[in-house]
Design goal:
This protein has 222 residues and is mainly beta. The protein is built from 3 helices and 14 strands.
Length: 222
């Protein structure tokens, strides 16, 4: 059965691809975690970053107070998907004291800058939902609490399957992110960028090959 994306493409209507209209947005998250556009959980300006290859560490805590007691200078505390999360930019071997270490995602290839910003997004996409085509001024990392992920760039696609899947893309190339599989995808994203540059810019001069949509169709047919 033809999906929404392919039907629109056949009609030449490629500017709007889904009700989930923004993967990166300045719209602040509300307490409700409904299916729809991504929203901004937190923005943390960082005057400097740790030396060495960097990773995004995700840790869960029983309370905000416990997370605050364990936070590093590059840590950010958010509440989402029924848990208190401590997000930290650090080296791969770094570990927080206390809490439950969930994952480290990376490496994050960051260009030198005078100051940096870490923007953390929350999204809930039903299968087939996607974001508008865009680029970032720094690397973006994705972590799915549940659901499957497809990321298409000019180089092809990356797939993430099952709870806890993660993907990373360097800053620069255009991208399309889609929830695939048969389960609603709930997840986070991190954009780590030069604070003097916009985190996200929409693009209109790149057209994906529809590889994620093809994968979504295969999943739906199983």
């Amino acid at each position: 059965m033809r999906t929404l994306f392919s039907s629109l493409a056949l009609l030449g209507l490629t500017a709007w691809v889904s009700p989930a209209f923004a993967q990166a947005t300045a719209r602040v998250c509300s307490a409700e975690e409904l299916v729809g556009p991504a929203c901004l959980l937190a923005r943390h300006e960082l005057p400097s970053l740790p030396a060495g290859p960097l990773y995004w560490h995700l840790d869960r805590f029983a309370s905000k107070e416990a997370a605050q007691g364990a936070a590093a200078d590059t840590s950010t505390i958010v509440e989402a998907f029924g848990a208190i999360w401590l997000f930290t930019i650090e080296r791969k071997a770094w570990r927080v004291k206390g809490g439950e270490h969930v994952a480290e995602v990376g490496p994050l290839s960051v260009k030198p800058a005078s100051t940096y910003a870490a923007e953390y997004l929350r999204s809930v996409f039903s299968p087939g939902m996607t974001a508008p085509l865009h680029v970032h001024s720094g690397p973006e990392a994705f972590y799915a609490v549940r659901g499957d992920t497809c990321l298409e760039t000019p180089k092809g696609i990356q797939l993430g399957r099952g709870s806890g899947n993660s993907l990373v893309i360097e800053g620069g190339p255009p991208m399309l992110l889609m929830a695939i599989g048969k389960e609603t995808r709930s997840g986070f994203a991190l954009i780590l960028h030069d604070a003097q540059q916009p985190p996200t810019t929409l693009v209109h001069d790149w057209h994906p090959q529809g590889l994620c949509e093809l994968q979504h169709a295969r999943d739906a047919a199983k």
